[in-house]
Fold each of these.
Amino acid sequence: MAARRVLISLPHLNRTTFMQTTTKPPARAGAQTAQQFVAGVRERVAKIVVGQDVVVERVMIALLTGGHLLLQGLPGLAKTLLVNAVAKAINLEFKRVQFTVDMLPSDIVGSEIIDLKSGDFRIHKGPVFTNLLLADEINRAAPKVQGAMLEAMQERKVTIGGQNLKLPTPFLVIATQNPVEQSGTFELPEAQLDRFMLLHRLGYPGREDEQMILQRQLGMGLRHEGGGAVPRSAFDMIEENAGASVEDLVTAMESVQAVHVSEVFVKHCVELVRRTRESKLLDFGCSPRAGLALVNAARARAVIHGRDYVTPEDLFDLAEDVVVHRIRVSYEASAAGHTGMQILQSILANLG
Amino acid sequence: MRHFFHHISPRAILAATGCALALSPIALAQQAADAPAAAVPPATPPAPPPPDPKLLRQLESILSHKFSRELADIFRFIEKTGAADTASLSPSDRFFSFFRTGDWGKIREELAQMPPDLARKIYDKMLADLTEKPKPNVRLDDVLALTEAVPGEFNAQEQRRIGQLLGLVVPVNESYWLADRLKNGTGRLGGTDPAKRLITARVLIAGGFKDLARTYLPPLNQVEQIADAELRNELTTFLTSQRESEAAQHEQVQKVWDENLRILTLEKTGDFEKSKAGQTLARVITQIPPATLAPVIANLVKNSPDNAIHLITGLGRKLEKEVKGDVQLRTDNLKAQAIVATLLAENVDLRTQPWGQLSQMMAEFWIMEADTTFGQETAPSGYKPKFVPVEELLATAPSGKWETSLQPGVRERLDMSLSKTILTAANFDQAADRIVGIGKRNPGAGVALAEDFLSVWAKSHNPQLPETLRKKYLLPDDARIPVTPIMMEKNIESLARMMTLFRQAGIAPKDYEKVVGAFDLAYSNAEAYRASHIEQVFGPLEKMDERLFFLILSRMNANLTERWRKMDVQRAGLTRRDETQTLEMVRAGYAGALQMIDGWMAGHPDGSRALTLGGSLLMDWGDFEYFQELVTGDARKRMLGYKEKNLQAQDYFLRGTDAYAKQVPKLVPGDYSIEPYLAWFHGLLGIGSGGQLNLSKAMNRAALTKIREHMLALPGKAAKAHLGMFAKVVNARLADEKDPLHEDLKYRYLASALVITKDDPFTLGAEKKVAYFDQLLSEIRLQTRVDGPNTVGRDQEFGIIVSVIHTEAMGRVAQFGQYVSNDPGAGPGKQKKKSPLAKKMREAQSARDELELSLNETLSPFFDIKSITFTTPDVKPRPTAQPGWEETVLAYILVHAKDASVDKIPPVGMELKFMDLSGPVTIPAESAETVIKVAASNAPPRPAPKIEITQTLDTRQFQINGSLALEIKATATGLVPELDQLLDLGVLKKAVAVRNINPHEGLQVKEINTWGDEVAPRSERLWTIALDGDPIREADAPTELQLPPAKSKDVAVLYQTYRDMDLATLEQPSVKLGRTPTIAGAIAKVAPRLAPWQLAAGGTGLAVLIGGFIFALAKRGGPAKERPLRARDVFKMPGEVDGFAVVALLRRMGASPLVKLRDKQQQELQQDLQRVQQACFGSSKGVMSETDLRSVAEKWLRAAC
């Protein structure tokens, strides 16, 4: 009965695929390659970014599962540097868009422009045409721009001048947003937040990490350009030659697909999602997309940790990033001092 | 390497190239005398010794290579030789190296060192190879340098080859480059040496430069005496063929000329034929070279002056007929006319008749075309017929003797037209100089031209994109190029330079509209004028013409109101100003305008107009400070700015009227102006100088009376005359049906005008209208009263009822429901869209919002307003004690006094909307003050005749965490009193401790009951009393909890509690709680419904919650006797035992500080954790059974607890 419920709750997985996934023997060789790939990327990133291991892991999870990642945190936490370093490490095309309030959808997806020489219209592709797009401060853009961006994320194609254009593969958006209480921001609607596989909240680095950041900076020296010179930044330290390739990434993605997901794990994922819907403290709980994200992210995390099966640890570790942005605390609960995180912890405590 | 020497003397060269040509001795002597020291080829080195055979073979190998200067060959060669020194290369490679790098001097040296035969062979091959290709990739200077490298004599074949090469390198139509080089002469060609000139001619003929070749040849008779037969024949043939060709052309032209001239001279020929003949002649004139035409005209004038006259009149007819024709035709006509007139001027005295007359007429034609071109070029927009281009006009303008022969009047007009034409070509400096010149002769013409100058200048500096471009690229109508600050500075500098020039010449433009228009265009659309720029262009303020000064200020005022403050204008102007910066710029603009006024006043102390304008500017500025949408700052600061500017404006208006009053005795009645008074009046009403309305201004009777007093203080009859004029203007404004007064302004406008005019007969209509409005108001009275006694407590909440007392008839007419609805359709008639210029301090959208804002603004200084509750739009009037009068309740305001000093409810205003014959009108109504008393001590409760209380004891969390909550909900007709006035809480507190009382939102007015005996609100209050249930829960015996009874027996109380999650009514106001299964609690009955795993989960959750609760208590310094939490309180066997539950349990135990495990145990725990994970989640088949899992869980629960 439980298995049946799983299949009903996960509409994108038909019975056949589910069975194939659960019965397929683990691809150990592939997993080892994936682990090497992940370790390689982490090593390169670690040379540039101090600390932030969890964020790097989340970025890798997003990469390996083709999901999108939303990073929430204050400026100056090396978000751009981190994403840049990851992109360079895998030889992915990387673009960064700073969202502003006066931005138009065409600034993201592109537009048709008239060629003054020929008089014909030609398509100017926007920055969304890339492998890894860093959408900086997405909540600064007006809702219509956010809508266009999120539509591109969902459909993985855009329409310009009546022409459908596919986005490159892989296509991954890593968006950042300021805490919404900051002025001049537009809160992302829940339906759109749901499209982000993970929302990770960044904190400040620890004392030792911060000390390390400063010490690294001390040894960077100057970059000479033309006749002048500028102090080198961490961006200058990013190695230009990629350590891994897109093919390596695809191999790692394949090994994620081979990770075993036990029935009991799926059952508890579903239970978690359902409990968010049933909670009286929440206006609404998670969509089925949350369950999918949880399972997929858990598989990727398992690969990153060198396992070919998922464990409850994966669920507990990822639940906050997968669930909290998909639920809304009711007004009464909020007034009583409950937060989404507390409610999730309570659900998790009762889950086991 | 050995060197070869080969000596060739200059004389030998001369002999070889035909200097021994048998020219006539005189000519030769003459040419020799004229010739400067001929450019002699550089001396060649002495003859070399005999060649080394090996070296000779290497040099001969050069002949086996192709001389190519194609880029691919050059690159290949460079790759081959690399960076090696040329000295280290083989002789052939070295030679090719020089060839390919174009080092012709070295080539000459190399050739000179070779055996002569070999050198010539190589040189000839080089020329042959180069001329073989259509693009030999050499330049003119390369060819000339190559000519200098000839080894030995420069023979005929080489001369032709060089010519051919020049023909390949220099296009015939660009032969001036070649002519330029040859003019000064080179070693072998050009210059003045006759022998070299002949060689040059041959070279040029071979290259196809026939015209240029002719300039290097002597006359045919001299050529025929050249000794060298080959050269003689060649040159003779060339000259003869040229002459024949010219003769044939001349003959042809002559034939056409004669025939058409004959047609023109025939008396019986019709105009059509004459015109046709003229057309043909005009074509001939424009197509043949002037050199050919000149003798014909000269001959014609000399031998047949009548025919010459016919020619000119024929041409004139043609011009007249085709004056509206095709542009090309007209351009050709002007060209023909210019050629004929110029040639004529060479042959006759144009000041004599009939030539003088013809010359004038031809000049008139040109002037006509020039004026057409200028008119069309400077036309602002619309259809433009085609006109002769400016450059063609300038090329065909009368000049030289033709121009000087013209009569003074025509010359002046020609000057004007020519200046305009130059101006049209946007050559402003040249045009300005001419204009100044003309201005010196005729200042009037100078001024007119200076004004034209400004038109053209403005047009050429207009950033607005032309319509054609806008249509082509589908751009909006207002598309314009941005004027950057640098462009702006340049524009101002250019305009200022020209204006200074004109001012100094005394021809400054008088059309100030044009001047200011040009200045405005020079400026960026988004930049406020700067005083420095104004002075730069228009000169010092004190010397500025009054009309110009006010025009600039008016333009500034309009731009300040409509343009500079707009962010879309700023964005379009690419200024990158943010809203704060734009705000500052506009402020600087206003300040600058006022500074200009103050500066002006220093030189014009009686200038009432400037002061009035200053007042209007300040009023606008004040409105801008409050209403500006750029930066929404603190409303109080904005209000301060608004008031400050309004006060300053009053001062300016006052000074303006005083200054005007001083002028009045000097004025005749026809010159009287009410502008100073009217501007003041408009300022008081909030009518901005740009037509924008500030509807927030109340009537300022004191200021209005001051206006009246100032008018009355005017001397003699002037006072009455001015009052009459003012009344007329007011009447005219009222009668303006096209632009009727705004409905919110109408009443105020009329009433304010009447304060000034009082009993003036012209304002009788206005007086009647105001009387009508006042009559309306006499049947309506706005009222505020306190709900209940007028004495209220210091912190007590009480209600203020806002209502309208009105006659029954007025109740039907006025439809008071519209004031409590935001539905635009609720009012009388269709809601008119508000003018975008009309603004109010209260930015309300609709009637109810407006009333709410008005109430808030009026009452908030005295009361803290808790809520304003409006009646429904279908509210019915209530009868009053006064027969025929009714009361319509509009709102109930829940307030409490800010402090004990509050002693009244201030007058409340609202705007009542009516219709009169001129459309909607808004009349302000105001309530009377209501006296209240704020008691220092607590006042008795507000009247609440019917109170109902529902008490609900929530026991649902009691067994989980000991939490007990008593929810008390009270509703009343009237205002619900405080909790301690309602219930006896002491009864409750005896049984259980009260943790806190949450009053939630406090008193809430839900609706207004207007249909009962009294107007009363339906109010509601909610309290939640958190009780400490722990002692009851921990007690061994059940505890009876007594719920609080009502203090008054008139209060109805309902007691409830939960049974099985359902609400149940209690028959007695008490509940038994505790450990007995029979105790009225929910948990025992709920438990069986839960699945085992849910129960277990609940248990775990409970444990966590208890932990959290204890922690929270500890943090806030809770009960000191709290039992410490133990592992067994927290960790229980999961309800449903599966891999997930066990892993979760072990994981939590491993991390919990409550669980004390030794290191070895910790390791074992981790191993078990791994084992369970591997077994339950791994893909291997070794799944653990539930029994296995349970035993693992039990093992660790035992170890931990």
Amino acid sequence: MASTIRVRAVASGDNTEVQALVQHPMDSGFIKDAKGDLIPPHYIEVIEFQHAGKTVFTAYWGPAVSKDPYIKFSFKGGRKGDDLNISWVDNKGQSDSLAGKIQ
Amino acid sequence: MLIAVAAAALGAQAARAAGTVDPQADFKAFRAYFTKRFPNVPLNDFVNGPYSMDAGLRKQWIEIDAFPPYQFALDKGKQMFETPFPNGKTYADCFPNKGIGIRQNYPYFDAKSGEVITLDVALNQCRQRNGQPPLDYTKDDMAALTAYMAYTSRGKPFDIKIPDDPRALAAYQKGEEYFYTRRGQLNFSCASCHVQSAGEHIRTEVLAPALGLVAALPIYRSEWGGMGTTSRRLTSCNSQVRAVPLKPEDEQYRDVEYYLSYMSNGLPISGPGARP
Amino acid sequence: MCRFAVIRLAAAALLAASATAAFAATADDFKTAFAKTEAANKAAAALKNQWTTTADALKAARAAAAAGKFDEAVKDAQQAEALANASIAQAKEQAAAWQQAVIH
């Protein structure tokens, strides 16, 4: 099955700039469906980016983050060809991960 | 003198009303109006809607477009497009040029049925011919498919034809009438926002000009948290002015898409788009 | 006629009118009002120009009638009829008026 994570990591000099788009409903639990029933909460709780065995970025998300979240950040280090691993876990215990490469 | 001026005005009105439908004259006037009103917007930039009107919004859009929110729909659309039907045929078999790079030719006037056929309708006709159930016209799978097809046409100029057929001219004029007719309890026409107030704000949104309005469809709207087609936009606009929406594939909607697409002839397809 | 007499007559007429309105509407009253409303709504639909607020008022009228609140139901039905008629007037006026908005 296709990954829920799309990533684009570009190294330039000392820094690596990372952009990622994650496919996830990010239901807050406050919205009602067409029938009037509450859509149960279903959102990513933690997303982590790892490079060379170290966590370079962690985000604690929750119901305030909208559907299909987009994230952008940069970290020191990283060179073209390096691995960049991304993983997330949501409140239902579901998870996904991606082994990306720095361009 | 006042009477003479009034008479002249009445005469001009009468000339417009009683005259034959002249899409080419309409096209020229429409284009001149927007280019004159927004002299600093390059012609092809009109297809970017609010981003051609507001620098701050544009900056955000350029950042977003580096990793566009319609990406998932686009990937899904490509997969759907390339997956054969149970009978072995594919969407490619229904369309000229195997369905690639053809979006800019829609809608077209179909002489056989005497109706305007949009890309969405053509896709469902294709599905029907191959024993498949129709897709919902407003979002999800239909939006994914048309997102892919629009993507293969990115940059190609709109090439909408109005054949020398009184029925086609009638459809064009009905579309023009729909665009300018006030409706709903709030008494807005499409023109109220997209001509009169183009570039201005409605609440927090910047209104797109009518020129190039349909070039970016289907769009991912942050407001929707998802994709939407022309039908979705038209039906939601209707409800927003407190008019009961028509069926998504209603003839009136197809006619107004025909009119707006013709008015955008020569402008590049910019879809699938991302909007606030 | 003496001015005060006119005023007293007008006041009496007003009182009489409000007194009539104060009589509880019956199911039949609602049926009559609703039939008129539905006819207007149908005409608006034929012109493809219904308002969402008309639909809401109609829904409210039906709900009130179902709950036996006929006064409210008649009021809602009349509101819906007014809205439907306004939408019909809008469609008829716009049929000619749209031309004036066209860019030329």
